[in-house]
Amino acid sequence: MMGAHHAACGAAAWVAVASTAPYTLGWYPVSPLGVVAGALVCAGAALAPDADHHDATIANSLPPVSQWVCDAVGAVAGGHRNGTHSLLGVAVLTGVAWAAGHLTVDTEALGELALGAGVLSLLLVAFAAQALRLGGNRRLHAWALALALAGFVTVAAPTEWTWLPVAVGLGASVHVVGDLLTTGGVPLLWPWEPRPPRWWRRTPVLRDVWRSGGNVALPVLGSAGSWREWLMVVPVGLYATYGVTTAVAAGTLTSLGYDADAVLGRVVELAGAVVATAAVIGTAPLPG
Ligand SMILES: [Zn+2]
Asked: How much is the pTM?
């Protein structure tokens, strides 16, 4: 999958899991700030497995340092679409986020600061902002946006970072699943990469699911960047935008003293009624 598509899927997954707005799952509810910041962190984490690739979004985020880092990751993980695209890779990334969350410093002026979480989030949000072009095409804008968000949460709401390993684990998983849906597949059980027997490699369909190199795939999206991938990503991107917008609205309403859940529920209900009415009108036969 393309970088921006991975990022959009990561943001949408966080919205589905962490928001409590209508049309979300609300399995891991967080504050409206947590929905917005987490969507960007999760989008960034959904790019992280491609840090094994010299030309990916991450490698181009802060050259030449980011390219050296990506070359090193690629060397350790056995090249592109290897270790970082496995269950072990997801576990390692989640562990790094968990460890980063425990790195705090006590300051006299600002109290306890979530330093590790702040730095990790700064990186992930900067990756997401660049992949999703949130700062236009300017690399500097993406870093400025990331710095503002990470700095704000680190200083103003350090306890907000408790969800960091969840967002990173979810984002990395979404990436691996995304690539699993393309023809190349992923080595889920890396470093164990069993190859299929010869008769399997000669059988249509079977050879696309367990590939000769050992990768597994459910190639419903076709090749990376295909029209099918685009078809899936447009509604996913709209859903992520919906989730972040409702979270911003909920945060604003709550700070103004309103019952945000009730107001938003009513707005979404009304919007649904308008869409249903428009659909009825649109499909009705013309008079005469
Ligand atoms: Zn990938």
From this structure: 0.89
